[in-house]
Every structure is written in C-alpha cells, then in structure tokens.
Fold this sequence. Notes:
Blueprint: H1 10-17, E1 37-40, E2 43-46, H2 56-60, H3 68-75, E3 81-82, E4 86-87, E5 90-96, H4 99-104, H5 110-120, E6 126-132, E7 138-143, H6 146-151, H7 162-170, E8 178-182, H8 184-196, H9 202-205, E9 208-214, H10 222-231, E10 239-243, E11 250-255, E12 258-263, H11 264-268, E13 288-292, H12 299-302, E14 306-310, H13 313-325, E15 328-332, H14 335-360, H15 374-380, H16 386-389
Parallel strand pairs: 6-8, 8-9, 9-13
Antiparallel strand pairs: 1-2, 3-4, 5-14, 5-15, 6-7, 10-11, 11-12, 13-14
Amino acid sequence: MTSSAKMVISQKILKEEVLESDLCTGCGACVGLCPYQVIYHDRTVQLHPCDLENGKCYDFCPRTSTDLNELRNMLFDAGDLTPETGAVKGYYFSRATDPQLRKDVQHGGTVTALMELALLEGLIDSAIISVRDQEFGQNGVVVTDKEALRKNAGSKFTVSPTVAAFNQLAATKDAGKIGVVATPCQALALAKMKLKSVKEDSGKIEQLKLVIGLYCGWAFAVEKFNELMGQNDVALESITGMDIPAGKNSLEIYTLNGTKSFPLSDAQTCIRSACNYCLDSTAEYADISVGAARFGDNWEEMRHWNQMVVRTGKGRNLIDLAIKRGVLEVREAPAESLRQLKNAAGEKKKTALQNIIRKSGSAKNLLYLDRHDPGVRRFLAKQISNKEDR
C-alpha cells in the first residue's frame, strides 16, 4: 500500500483491503471515531460512505500498513527486542496471592490482580475489559471496581471490539487515566494511535496509561462457534469458561452441567479467518503480556499459574509494586520455558506468512506487512528462496 493509494478515500480502502478481504480482526479501532462504522455481532459494518482522504479508521486499523520498526523504537528499549516475542524486559511465572481470586478466574489471575492494583493505587481511573453477551459475543466495557473485574475475568476465545470502548471513553470529557486489557491486534491498534495521533487527538491517546496484553493464537467466529455448540447440545447460557489443556489437543468447554471436550480440529473450524494472517501471538505491543503457563508435563499444577512478559519500564514498575503490595506471587521462569515460547511464537509468524503469501499470490505482496521490515524479513526468509525475495 503506497502513500499515493492512501489519498483515495480511506473508508473505501479499508472496506476493500480489510473488511472484504477477511483481514478484519474485529478489534473496534475504527468504531467510535465517527457514526459511520459500527460492530454488528462480531463484524465491522460501514453504515454510510465517508469522504475523508486520510481517515483515522484506516490509520488505526491493525491490518493496514504500518512502520512496525518505528513503532518498536517508539515503545521499547532496543536491547529488549527479540524477533520472536517482541520486547522482553523480564519473563516470569506469576499468580495472584488471593486464593479466592485464583479460584474465581482462569489460570493464575495475574491480569485481574494487576488491573485491581492499578485501580486501587490510582495508576488508572478505569479499566476497559471484555464482557460476554448472551450469544457468546463480546463487547468492551468500562469498569472501575474489582467486583466487575472479577466477574468478567477468564478467557472467552471470541473477538471483542475493545478498542471501540476506548475510543468512546477517551472522547468523553475528563475520562481520566485508562487501562486496557487487550489481545495482540487490539494492542497493536492502540500503539498505532500513539504513532499516528494528530495534534487534536493527542490528549485522548495520552489518557492511555496501561495496556496488559493477552496471549492469543486465534479467536472463534461467533456464528461458527455457536453452530458447533448447537450441534453438540451445549447451551450457550450454560457455558462458564473454556480452555485448551497443554498436551491434550482438545478444547474443554466448562458448563453448569459439567465439562464437554472437543477435538481441537473441530474447534479450529470455527477460527475467524483474519486470525490466519496474524503474526503476533504474545501481544507484543503491550506493557505486560500474560498467558497460561504451558510447559512441562504437570499441567494440573501449572494451569494455576501464568507466564508473563514484561515489556516496558511502566510494566516493570507495576510488577514491582504488585510484589511489594503482596498481591502477586512472581518467580523467575526457566530459560527452557522462554525458549519454548519463542519457538511457538516463531512458528505462528512463519505460518501466518505462509498464509499471507498464499492469499496474495506473491512473496512481494504481504498485504498489510512491509516485506523489508527486519522482523518480517527474518521469518520471510524461511518461507521463500533468496532469489524470489529479491
């Protein structure tokens, strides 16, 4: 995508190159900026034509062209950057010290504990999280207390237009300091807002004080997931949670009536198309990234812990405060676990590039990616010969 192409109406390009090309992640970055774009279920819909040549809907979308190298240099210390998982200032296993919190939420409760602490200490005035609706879709909502945080904790495996909630909150007067729990595509959209904000909008993005990222390999398309549940007599309203146990190659659905297990191959038929073209599985553009502690053989023990990547100085300060206040138990993770994480993240990047090349028909057209970006080139070289890449 060249700069001259962007002089065409932004909304039209967004529709052609993202919405109609199965690249839309449903992050909500283009929603809440103007009345012309909305979320319907988990789809982004354009209600009315817009004639802006350089619209924010295009600029903030995580699936439009971006100078990722400039973004990395803006957000992170150069010495912390790794090609597989982005900036790594520290890598740990963690869990909330509150046993009730660990019981109520998924895995170690690290994300909820950190957001609670940030609210309590006044580091943020409100947190934006995802809340599930009755049809198993999600929406971003603003919360200001720990009860709401705990009630809506846990992995949901479907997309949420979380960034739309940020757009709407940031547009209000005196919104205060905002923290966001974000998937990789959402974290990238928020980072692009920092990179591309114009003068009149700079105050809005400056309200963003904390981004806690969630590991994410893919998300379900709501319609397909609901169909799978219906075929297997699982009532949506009965679902209390879900997980992918390490080494079991299955999806576990937790319901009021017990646990239902599905082969992972069945679950993967419900994956949102856009996820096939995403390179980021560890939320590389967050301050702190958190996922399940998947390593070794003892899954029953480790499923109650998280693995955590600290990426920025802001993230480091929050972790230090969490340890000082006694709300988080943190221990150094073994080097082997980080190696496994990097391998998995690298495989995600290679697979996504394969899918992108297959979709575009050429290694010289990587859709929303710049093939000359150093991070992209490292993994692109594994897909094609040096001759084809020239």
